[in-house]
Amino acid sequence: xxxxxxxxxxxxxxxxxxxxxxxxxxxxxxxxxxxxxxxxxxxxxxxxxxxxxxxxxxxxxxxxxxxxxxxxxxxxxxxxxxxxxxxxxxxxxxxxxxxxxxxxxxxxxxxxxxxxxxxxxxxxxxxxxxxxxxxxxxxxxxxxxxxxxxxxxxxxxxxxxxxxxxxxxxxxxxxxxxxxxxxxxxxxxxxxxxxxxxxxxxxxxxxxxxxxxxxxxxxxxxxxxxxxxxxxxxxxxxxxxxxxxxxxxxxxxxxxxxxxxxxxxxxxxxxxxxxxxxxxxxxxxxxxxxxxxxxxxxxxxxxxxxxxxxxxxxxxxxxxxxxxxxxxxxxxxxxxxxxxxxxxxxxxxxxxxxxxxxxxxxxxxxxxxxxx
Length: 372
Fold this sequence. Notes:
By secondary structure, the protein is mainly alpha-helical. Helix content is 48%, strand content 2%. It has a 3-stranded antiparallel β-sheet with strand order 1-3-2, with no helix packed on it.
C-alpha cells in the first residue's frame, strides 16, 4: 500500500552480486559484522543493525533498486539467530525472520495498527510470496507476536532498522512512504550547565563513550589470536578509561580499573602497554580511518549535518608513549629520551582522545537513542 502500489520489482541476481561485491571492496566495512570482530556474534542485535546499515547504504545506490519493500524482502537474514529474542517456546506458525520483515514493513510507513498491515499483505501477493507467507497472519497474531513474542530489544531493532532503511533510501533519491525523523540537538553556550566540574565531565564522557564504543571499538583490533582469557574489549575499555583521566599511568590505572569495571578479569598495566606497543603506525592509522568512517556513517545515518563537526586529537607531549617513529619523523612529534626508543605523542598516544572527541562530535546530535 506504499504510494498506492501493491507490487515490487524483484532484484536480479546480477544486481545482488553487484551490491555485495561493492560492500566486499570497501576497506572500512565488514559484512556480516559478527564475522570480523569479537564484539558481536550471530545473536547481537547491534551487529544486525550495523549489517542493515551497511547493506542498505550500498543497496539503494544501484539504479535498479528503487523500492524499500524490495529491500526488506531481499535483506539477508539467514545467518542471524533470533532464538534468544523469541519469547515463545515450541512450534509456531510463523518464523521469527519472517515476522521481523513483516514488522519492518509495518514501521516503514509508520502504521500504528496491525489491521493496516493485514490489509496491505492481503493485497500484496508478490510481497507475501517473497516473505514465504502461505497465509496472511491475522490481526491478533501480529499483535501477540509484537507484544508478547518479540523482546523489547528486538522491537527497538525493528524500529531502528526501519528508520535506517528510510534514511538510506531517501539519501539515495528513492521514494519513501514517509519522512524519517531527523532531529538536531542544539547546544546553548550560555547555559549554566555547560560549566561543569571534573566529575560531572567524567560522568558525561563515560555515558557518551558507552554509546559510541559499539561503533568505534570494532575498528581497533589487537590481533591477539583465539583462546585469550581476557576479552579484547577489556583492553579497549581500559585505554579509554586511562585517556579520560589526568595523570593516570598504565599500572596505576589498571589497578583502579579493576574496581571501576564490571568485568571479572581486566588487563594488567604491563600487558596493556605491550599490546599497544605491538601496533605499528600503519596499523593504527588504518584503524583510525576505519573508526572515523564508521562514526561518520553512523551520524550520517541517524542525523543530518546542519553544521560542521570537529574531531580533535590530543597530541600533547606531557604523557609520551614509547614507540618507533622511523620514517615518520616529520609527521609525529617526538623527543629522544634516555632509551633506545622514541617518546612520541602522535597517533599511538591518542586512541582515547580520538574516541572521546569523536563522541563529543556525535553528542552535537541527538544520537544517544542508538546506544545500547
